[in-house]
Amino acid sequence: MSKINTVIVEDSRLARNELKEMIKKYSRISLVGEAENVDQAYELINETRPDLIFLDINMPEKDGFELLEMLDEVPITVFTTAFDEYAIKSFEYNALDYLLKPINEKRFAVAMEKIEARLEAMDSKSSGHESRLTDKSQIFIKDGEKCWLVRIEEILLFEIVGNYTRVFFKEEKPMLYKSLNQVEEKLPLANFFRANRQQIININFIKEVVPWFNGKLKLTMTNGEEVEVSRRQSYIFKDKMSL
C-alpha cells in the first residue's frame, strides 16, 4: 500500500511530539513535515503536497480555518483542538474528523480508519506536482460565516459575479473570491468546459442540450440552471461531445 504523506500543523511543540508518537505506530503514515504557524504550513503544504494534514484550529495570528482559505487544493483534513466548541464548527468545513486534545490513542485509531477509507475511495494520486486539480481534489470556500470543503466533481457550474465567482453545488451558491479565469486555470480539462465568457460548466451535470439561435446551443443543467453556449464555443462543444 502506498504511503500517506502527512503534515502536522500545530503551534505547541508538546502537541506535535504527542502526535508524532502516535503516528509512529502506523507504518503507512509518512510524516513529510511539521509547521508551528499558518504561514509556515502554507509553504510546506504547497511544497510537499501531502495527502493528509493534522490541523490545529486555534493558533496565534492566523487560525486553521484561515489556512484552508489560503490553499488552492485542500488535503484530507483532521482537525486537532483543545476546545469542544470548535468540534461542531469543524463539520461545517467538511473535515474528515476532529481529535480533542489530549488525544486518546483509541480515538486516534478511529481517525486512522476514516483516513484509510477515504483514501481507498479516492482515485490514486497523480504523480508529480500537477498544476491542475483533479475531480477528487477539495477546495475551500468561505462566504460570510458559512464555509465548505467541496470536491471538484461535486461542482456543476462556475459563474462570474463582478470580480468574483459564484460556485454551484448541491443546493449551495456561495461566492469564491477568485476570478473565473483564475478558477479555469486550475480545473481538470476532461469534465469542465468554458461555455461563454461568464460561465464554466461541469459536463457531467448537463441534463439537456438544444439548438439555439445563430448556431448557439442552450444547455439545461441538472439543477435547472440554463446556460447559453456562445457560437464559437458551441462548435468546440459539439466536437468535444461528438455531437
TrEMBL record:
Domain HTH LytTR-type: 139-243
Gene3D superfamilies the record matches: 3.40.50.2300, LytTr DNA-binding domain
Pfam hit, one: LytTR
UniProt keyword list: Phosphoprotein
GO terms assigned for molecular function: DNA binding; phosphorelay response regulator activity
Annotated positions of the 4-aspartylphosphate modification: D56
UniProt-listed InterPro entries: CheY-like_superfamily, LytR-like, LytTR_DNA-bd_dom, Sig_transdc_resp-reg_receiver
Residue ranges of every copy of the Response regulatory domain listed in the record: 5-116
Identification of the protein by name: Response regulator
